[in-house]
Design brief:
mainly alpha
Length: about 100
């Protein structure tokens, strides 16, 4: 029943409820515009609703589980540095893979 009360524009952007006013704008923006969209797509792949790499989807769900913006950013930077410094991957390629 509540699904019908959510305007189409809000559902399209995964805005299902108001945010906690005590959290900052940055984390709220990250969660609603990026993280939620990525995790929902991964869950759709796991459930078989859309086609995709199931293992990568599970890895994505695990990676984003209860991860805040600073923690996730640190993980991405660490991954880029490891690929460049330890695996001798060219910096531009490591940066591109880390971003994706």
């Amino acid at each position: 029943m509540t699904e019908k009360l959510i305007p189409e524009y809000a559902a399209k952007l995964y805005y299902y409820h108001h945010s906690n006013p005590s959290s900052g704008d940055g984390p709220t923006f990250w969660n609603k515009t990026r993280k939620r969209k990525i995790v929902n797509k991964a869950w759709s792949i796991v459930k078989g609703e859309i086609k995709g790499d199931r293992e990568l989807a599970l890895q994505t769900i695990d990676e984003y589980f209860d991860s805040n913006v600073k923690m996730h950013s640190g993980k991405v930077v660490q991954e880029i540095c490891d690929k460049h410094l330890l695996d001798n991957m060219p910096y531009a390629q490591a940066l591109k893979e880390g971003y994706e």
